[in-house]
Amino acid sequence: GAGVSQTPSNKVTEKGKYVELRCDPISGHTALYWYRQSLGQGPEFLIYFQGTGAADDSGLPNDRFFAVRPEGSVSTLKIQRTERGDSAVYLCASSPYDGAYEQYFGPGTRLTVT
Amino acid sequence: AQSVTQLDSHVSVSEGTPVLLRCNYSSSYSPSLFWYVQHPNKGLQLLLKYTSAATLVKGINGFEAEFKKSETSFHLTKPSAHMSDAAEYFCVVSDAGNNRKLIWGLGTSLAVNP
């Protein structure tokens, strides 16, 4: 079956611009996660959704970052006033239910802020 | 607070020889531990997980790991390396009492030489 998909695969934007990154989880998965992976680092937790609600957004670095999941399926990570330090690979993962151990990852979106 | 230390940033082995990727963790609770693999241009994939059952855990592609509480270690091994094993490997611990939030090591890059 289809795995987690993320669009776009690559995004180049200018400093100060607004970007949206999209995640399509595996059909039927209720839990969805966003991570950020900088070069040479492991993924860093950003936010977790159970259904439509953000159950844990403690990893969002500041108020320029926001994520939504309005219908409990597709999620969008939104970054306002992008900075060069936001450049990273943004990963999305989903799990079949809340508390499931395995997270299924998408291929990521590589964001470059120039 | 939970943390993970991967003791080697790069490991190089010859095809057919054993693989050992080392991981130490810090946790004030009984942790859940994971190994994920990341092949170039592909999403992260779960290799195996420890969740307080058997201490020797078998995963996919012939990998296994042993949870040693006295040593706070969770090293990943494989008896015989294959060229297709070349990838980045991440040791991961779940946040205390919350397996939704994963804490990642910095990764170990495994090279397999013919």
Based on helices, strands and strand pairing, what is the structural class of chain A?
mainly beta
Using the alpha-carbon principal axes, give the shape of chain B: globular
Question: Quick one: how many beta strands of chain A?
Answer: 11
Radius of gyration of chain A (CA) equals 13 Å
Fraction of residues in β-strands of chain B: over 45%
Percent of residues of chain A in helical segments? under 10%
The number of helical runs of chain A is 0
Helix content of chain B: under 10%
The average pLDDT score of chain B comes to 91
Number of strands of chain B: 12
Alpha-carbon Rg of chain B, integer: 13 Å
Oligomerization category of the chains in this entry:
heterodimer
Largest sheet of chain B: 6 strands, mixed
Total count of helical runs of at least 4 residues of chain B:
0
Cα distance spanning the termini of chain B: 41 Å
Beta-strand proportion of chain A: over 45%
Q: CA-to-CA gap between the ends of chain A?
A: 37 Å
H/E series of chain A, N to C?
EEEEEEEEEEE
* Strand and helix order of chain B: EEEEEEEEEEEE
Overall pLDDT of chain A: 93
Alpha-beta classification of chain B: mainly beta
What does this structure look like?
The complex is a heterodimer of chains A (114) and B (114). With 114 residues, chain A is mostly beta strands. Chain A is built from no helices and eleven strands. In chain A, strand 9 and strand 10 form a beta hairpin. Chain A is globular. The N and C termini of chain A lie far apart (37 Å). Chain B is built from no helices and twelve strands. Chain B has 114 residues and is mostly beta strands. The chains are: A mainly beta (114), B mainly beta (114).
